[in-house]
Write a structure and sequence with these properties.
Helix 6 packs across helix 7, helix 7 runs antiparallel to helix 8 and helix 10 crosses helix 11. The protein starts with 15 loop residues before the first strand and ends with a helix. The radius of gyration is 24 Å and the shape is globular. It has eleven helices and ten strands.
Length: 292
Amino acid sequence: MNELSLNNPSIKGLGTLYVVATPIGNLSDITLRALETLKAVDAIAAEDTRHTSGLLSHFGISKKLLAVHEHNERQSAEKLLLQLKAGENIALVTDAGTPGISDPGAVVVDFVRKAGIKVVPIPGVSAVIAALSASGIVQNGFLFHGFLPASGAARRKALDILKTQTVTLVFYEAPHRIIESIVDMANVLGSDRRITIAREITKTFEMIYCCTLCDAEAWLKADANQQRGEFVLLVEAAPIKDAGGISEEAVRVLKLLLVDLPLKQAVKLAAEITNEKKNILYDFALQLKQLE
């Protein structure tokens, strides 16, 4: 068993599972800690061993590779657990990005953690954060949904559930579904909402484009190349409803009370102090909480 030169001692007699983020395109984005970990572990559990072999070869690393993908994740977790219990240290990687974030990995992590194995994250590149950082979106907070359902009906149902969210909505999408998803977003969320389309983040043909949902389909269709690659889609938040006729003083009082009190108690006191209707204050308080 190799000794990891990391400040994360294993549980006595057991190995450690390292969840390692890898580059999403530009290999130079790999972290020094990720390289150190991949060099030191006994084996690497990979979504696609051929893909990971290329990454390891680039950095001069040679390791035993174990296949762990969406079709065998549960069975692989059981095998990995045996190796971890035998004292081996294992790195878990996917083809790009962080395991468990719209990629295989969560099943393995949950399984071995419940068995008492230490799990250590090795953070790195994230397409979500990269896209947000370059979008210029200043809305408070975001909701990462990942991939929408492949079927149209299920996709529209998912969007319908999300359409009232007052935070930026973030999705991943594949090139063969990008047009259909954009059309559904415009129809369900509202065509006047702004969208930032981040394509091929960190790769040679990286592109970040902002427009309204009503213009996004035409932009994508104007050049077939703009429909290629992996997408991160950032959709403008739903507008915050007004205070429903609540007085400025009632809004001020409610906000002050919400700082130190539970929502229901704050609403009750605000209604007593300002003589506003409790149900209206409650609805407005929920909106305020969503923005925290």
